[in-house]
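Weekly puzzle thread! Below is a chain. First person to post its structure in token form gets bragging rights.
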Amino acid sequence: MTSFKGPLLLVGAMALFALLDANSKLLAGRYGADQVLVIRYGALLILLGMLRLVWRGAGGPIATARPGLHLLRAVCMAGSAYGFFLAFRDIPLAEGYLVYFTAPFFILLLATLVLGERNGGAVWFWSAVGFLGVMVAMFPALTLRGPSATIPWHAYAWAFLGTMTYAGFLTISRMLRAEQNAARLIFWSSGPIFIAILPFAIADWVAPDALDWVALLANGLFAGGATLALAIAFSIDRAARLAPLEFTALVFALILDAAIWQLWPGAWTLAGATIVVFACLMSERASRRDHH
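Winning reply:
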């Protein structure tokens, strides 16, 4: 029987990433990227340390035989975090996800070039259909601006950087699947970046109030939960099966845009979302058929 653990973890990660992006967008108007991210990584490290004090060895071993690969993954993780944080300062979630949804193509490409995975033509086809659905959903946002409106190309460039480094993070996580556990992932992905950006965060520190401290700490929990679920999903299942399911993030982005910023989906958006969901289902079906 086919296991759905990988796909379920992937969809759960997409929901947490959407909450993370919404949380970061709300914080971006008051705090710099360095401060938000240093608190994010610091919260994860403190949580890991507390758990290991209460339960000896919680999360598994930290020592690794491949520190260089772990550090490279940390750099990719940081690049993705900075890219999307800076992008969402100036564009809505749904528009940023337009760029983000090119990730499945890069993930499939890296899986083929780096991991040697064989991806059937149907999987590539349905990934392309899913991206087409995103283009349909985002069409009004990119074409129906006023004549004097300025398109924030810098924000889209940051989102593209976040997307590329995100694909690299997942590919490296797949390469590290033999060493995949919560302690290694949190320690090696958070510790080096925390140390690297701490001086910059202190230099531009803005004192948060009590409510903002809750939001900043929640930012770390959302990031940790999403990253862990994502890394585990790609360590136990094939990229060809999981990557197209990332289009489900569109649904969560639409819900949060409506709930927080009262941006309700129109006909174009609903049509695109329908295409995305259908493409996800068909791609997963094609992936299972190719590997039976």
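Puzzle host: Confirmed. Bonus trivia for everyone else. The longest helix spans residues 210-236.
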